[in-house]
Every structure is written in C-alpha cells, then in structure tokens.
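Entry 14. Structure prediction run on the chain below.
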Amino acid sequence: PSCSWKMALSRGLRCCQRVLSWVPVIVIAMVVLWSYYAYVFELCLFTLTNAAEKVVYLIAFHVTFVLFVWTYGKSIFTRPLNPHKKYSISYRDKKRYDNEERPEAQKHILAEMAKNLPVYTRTASKAVRFCDRCQLIKPDRCHHCSVCDVCVLKMDHHCPWVNNCVGFSNYKYFLLFLTYSLFYCLYIAATVFQYFIKFWTGELPNSRAKFHVLFLLFVAFMFFVSLLFLFGYHCWLVSKNRSTLAEAFSAPIFQHGPDKNGFNLGFFENMKQVFGEDKKYWLLPVFTSPSLGDGHFYPMKSVGESRNLLLANEEQWGEDGSDEDSPGTSNKGLPVRRNT
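Output returned:
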C-alpha cells in the first residue's frame, strides 16, 4: 500500500510539473494575442484615419505576425530527436558494466560497445560518453535533458518559453523565432512611436487607444532589448558551429584532446549545418537537410577525424544494418566507423 501511494504521488507531481511547464508559453501567447488586438483594432482600425496608411500597416503587420507565430509554433511542437536505437546497450552489456567497479575496466567496456559507432568525443577521463539514465552511448554533441528526462541530439538547451528542448530537430526554427520576434517588436515600436507622441502631446484625443499604444511601445521595446542579446549570442554560436551545452560552456574532448573549434568548418559551412543546403528555404520554418550530419555525427575541423568520418560514411550498420529506425529518431542510415 505504501509503495502504491508513493507511485501515485510521484505521478501526481509529474502531472503538475507538466501542467506548470506550459505557464510561460501561455503567458507569451496572451501577450501576443493582446498585441494583435491592440495594434489591429485599437491603433489601425480605431485610431488611423488615412485609408492607405491602414492598408499598408495591416499588410506589413500580418506578414510579420504570421512568420512570428509560425516559427514560435514550430519551436514548441517540433519534438527533439533522440538517439538511434543502435546507441542503446544490450542487457548483457548493461550487466557487465554495472557489475564492474573498476573505472578503467568500465572505460574498456564502453570502448568495446562503441567500437562500431561514429562517436569521436570523450569525457574528461577519455572514456566514451555514456548516459546512465537512458542506458545508451551518447552520440557526439548529444546531452541528457533533466527536464524532459531523455537524451537529445545536438542539444543546445531546454527553453521554458517554448516548453521544449532546443536541439538538432528544431534549432533552425528557434533561431527563426528569435529573428521574427525581433522584427515583430521592432515593427510595432517603429510604427507606434509617432502615435505615442501624438497622444501625449494632445494631437490626438484621449481615448482607450492611448493606453494600448503606450503599453504596446513599452512591451515591444522591452522584449526587443532582451531578445537582442539572446539573438546575438546564438548568431555567434552558429558562426562558430557551437551549441550552448556541448561547446560553448566547455570544450568538447576529442581523441586528440579538447578543442572548442572542433566542429568549426568556416562561417558559410557552419550556416549550412543549421539552415541546410537550399538557401531559398533559410528564412522559412521548414525542414531543410543539413549539408552533412544527421544529428548523430558531424564533420570535424581536424583532418584526421574528418578522414575517419568520410571513411565511415562508406558503410552502413553492418550485418544488422537493415533494422528499421525506431520512432522519434532520424530516418537516415547511420555509418559504421572503420578502425584505421
């Protein structure tokens, strides 16, 4: 009875946590809906008198609004990708690993389990990266999210404002969300400012719209300044081909040692790693395949490592490579690393 009571309590707490995690998203949604009402109705329809100005303002606003909401929705509802099932360890290997108490022996067991996987980064002790919670070998740039309680491919961070992990599957959408959020705030502030002045200098009569215009300007400016720093930081990360957790906070450790620029291929190639090969889709929140890498492996700056990766691409998974992908993982076949 006590055990079932504890399980029920644990389930209840998890349920409350899931509900509360949507609070930041709901707050943002309410602010956005209010900004839509204040701009479209209170400013454009009730305050502006010039018909041509109304049309221009409304068209430009709705284009920006749709792009902003589209990218925000994609950031929220695009689920992060988890490692392929080939990275999961077998029951036999798990027992071997758990029963072994010597660190060096555990390191040897992990190396043996990862010998046919394209993993090149290591822990500080030069061991293969392993997740005790998910019981799998971690692909390069993969991290375990303590909030979602899963390993996420190329995890950048867990963002409470989208209630989602930002990683390989949705990093492009998150960057576009920041971009169009800035445009949205800047557009509102720029077009509202002159009417803010007119209200407070008496050129326009006092009305309910006056307070909506005041708060529109204040909220737009506040969000613009705060988003500008976050946007600038992520632009810097993209230019260096880094992620917040994997490379920005601490240098990834390769077989040749730590190197913060281990995945840096140059500005243009780094852009293609996030936004894909097809440039005409770069500014749209649609999936575009990156030039190289599928979330599990990435080209590297190091000549030796890059050569190994290119050799690895020549083969598939080996004897059981025909296994179908598990749900929620990349659909591409994963390469086997050759020992050279």
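The first helix runs from residue 2 to 20.
Filed with the rest of this week's runs.
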